[in-house]
Specification:
- By secondary structure, the chain is mainly alpha-helical.
- It has six helices and no strands.
- The longest helix is centred in the last third of the chain and has 42 residues.
- The chain is rod-shaped, with a radius of gyration of 26 Å.
Length: about 260
């Protein structure tokens, strides 16, 4: 029996091989994009997410990171299967494509469902996160061992130009503000021009008083990030449908080729 590589293939089979090889190149690029978005969200925005004491928001990012790594490995398998014309490896490649497709659909759904007014859980989760942020600010800000929370709150209030969770008055119940040796009414990061002890005045000309609290701005920010995660995950997932179609066609053509 002659080796399969010695037998001429039809034009359609050759075209499918090149198309699948080109798809794998695009697949690698897409996998890198998925991985980058997931890592960027966790590295650059993890401070804000950690203030909410919830792992729900980071779950989508972790899923995308896992999918990105699997995509790179899958792309290598796909190239080997295509170049070597190994039907068994093509089956493995197809199964991995299907697995990643489902993984990214789940990531996209997780990202979108969190802020959709669809189930009672959505409302409960939203209120829980509001309370978590308020309690975190009041109980952990400027407390020993909570330096990361303090830095995150300061960064949040300065970047979003806000003060407190719901409004500036949330700070009146802060453990740190109530300390006997504290002369401030709000943290210095509430000030429009931050400086040492600038938080001793809560006049609108000095702090972000009329701009409102941080929770609404944080929710809007996280919502935009979830949309990005969801769009990337779902977009790449549908690209993989094309790859699965090419793989099935190539597998069938190789199976039908004479040996």
């Amino acid at each position: 029996m002659e080796a399969q590589g010695d037998k001429p293939h039809t034009c359609g089979t050759i075209c499918l091989k090149y198309l699948l090889f080109l798809f794998n190149i695009l697949f690698w690029v897409a996998g890198g994009a998925v991985l980058t978005v997931g890592v960027w969200t966790l590295v650059e925005k993890s401070d804000y997410i950690s203030l909410l004491n919830s792992s729900f928001y980071s779950a989508s990012a972790y899923i995308l990171i896992a999918a990105g790594v699997i995509v790179i490995v899958t792309g290598i398998i796909g190239c080997c299967a295509t170049l070597k014309e190994m039907k068994s490896l093509l089956v493995v490649y197809l199964i991995l494509l299907l697995f990643i497709f489902l993984l990214e659909i789940i990531a996209g759904v997780l990202a979108y469902i969190n802020y959709q007014e669809c189930f009672p859980l959505c409302y409960q989760l939203d209120e829980e996160l509001r309370q978590n942020l308020k309690v975190t600010m009041q109980q952990k800000y400027q407390q020993p061992g909570e330096e990361s929370v303090t830095q995150a709150v300061d960064k949040l209030q300065q970047e979003f130009k806000c003060c407190g969770s719901n409004n500036f008055s949330d700070w009146t119940e802060s453990v740190w503000i109530q300390a006997a040796d504290n002369k401030r009414l709000v943290p210095d990061s509430c000030c429009k021009t931050p400086s040492d002890l600038c938080g001793h005045r809560d006049h609108p000309s000095n702090i972000y008083k009329v701009e409102g609290g941080c929770i609404m701005k944080l929710e809007d920010f996280i919502l935009s990030q979830l949309y990005i995660l969801g769009a990337v995950g779902i977009g790449i997932a549908f690209l993989q449908l094309v790859g699965m179609m090419f793989t099935c066609c190539l597998h069938k053509n190789l199976k039908d080729d004479p040996y």
